[in-house]
Amino acid sequence: MTLTACSGGTSSAGSAPAGSAGGQAASASSQTAAVDWPKKTINFYCTHASGGDTDYMARKLASSLEKVLGVSIAVTSVGGSNGATCTTQYKDGPTDGYTFICGNTAALCGNKATKLVDFGYEAFEPVAIYGKQSGENIVTRADAPYTNLKELIDASKKKPNSIKFGISTGGGVYIESCVLKNLGGTQFNVVEAGDGATRLTALLGGEIDCTSLPYSTAADYIKSGKLKSLCTVMSKAPDLMPDQECASKYVPQLKIDTEYVILAPKNTNSALLKAMNDAILKVGQSDDWKKIVNSYCMQNPYVLNLQDTLSNLKEQDNLYMSYQPYL
Fold it and tell me: 54, 217 in Cβ contact below 8 A?
């Protein structure tokens, strides 16, 4: 399959619906290059284990891209160390356009801020931000006596170290716990509880008392009455859940917007990056993709071009590094 990749075009996707400006940029470019790609199976390596939102979205992107690109995409989950196992293993992988890393910005930027790894987005070739998470939610079991974050904070102060808050060391949830402690005054017993899917199991089983989970991961259990969400830690409520309370109401500095990102190994050909980004922008314009992100992420489509992806990652990196004094 031969794709035409623009060598100089950019778009200003911002928070607009996916692909709103990408096509205009392509037509405006004065210089194009034909890319005879792809010719074989593409490999997606996901930074988190099966069962979590990052893996789910990577697989949905892969199946959607197969229809656009006309080749198979194999998705392999390489979990461990909050995504650091995968990023470390594949950041210097093949640069022929058949190796990509699917992760999320909280892990990518958070692992650098916590010094779990000594690299961030700059160690890769960013390809696309392709969605917003439903938002990390601070959740408890339904029978817990708290109805909002303030009540949970107050309870932790009354009985220090008695409430177990489950985290994944090095990532966004760990950072949340540090911000809650240093800027919100919480006195949790913070314990390692693994990735989102593992923390969910631990919470349901009573091994921990509360944690932070993507709403999409906990949604079925919230709806069935087994869990409850106290708040989102996003800077604003998800598009389709506008009434959800934000953690920043009680801890103003706690604003974490996790987004899904796809990366390529450093020095992957720029024309191949543009071709893959164009394909992802096309997926983002489809009705099927809108249904996926509406139902699972509770968001509207959010897919960025190459330039805006890079700008977004710089902003996220700066945010996470600003938390470093509290870690």
Answer: no
The per-residue pLDDT for range 17-73, each reduced to its tens digit, is: 444 434 333 333 333 356 899 999 999 999 998 988 999 999 999 999 999 999 999
Residue 14 has pLDDT above 50, yes or no: no
Q: Helices 53-69 and 270-284: crossing angle, nearest 10°?
A: 100
Same domain, 119 and 10: yes
Q: What is the CATH number of the domain that holds 45?
A: 3.40.190.150
Torsion of CA 48, 52, 53, 58, to 10 degrees: 50
Taking only the tens place, the pLDDT of each residue in 4-13 is 444 333 333 4
Quick one: which of 35, 33, 12 has its CA closest to 22?
A: 12
Q: What's the whole-model pTM score?
A: 0.86
What gap in Å lies between CA 35 and CA 318, rounded to an integer?
34
Mean pLDDT of the 151-168 span: 97
169 & 111 share domain: no
| Structural domains counted in the chain | 2
- 240 with 296, same domain? no
CA distance 290 to 271: 27
73: which strand partners? Answer: 42
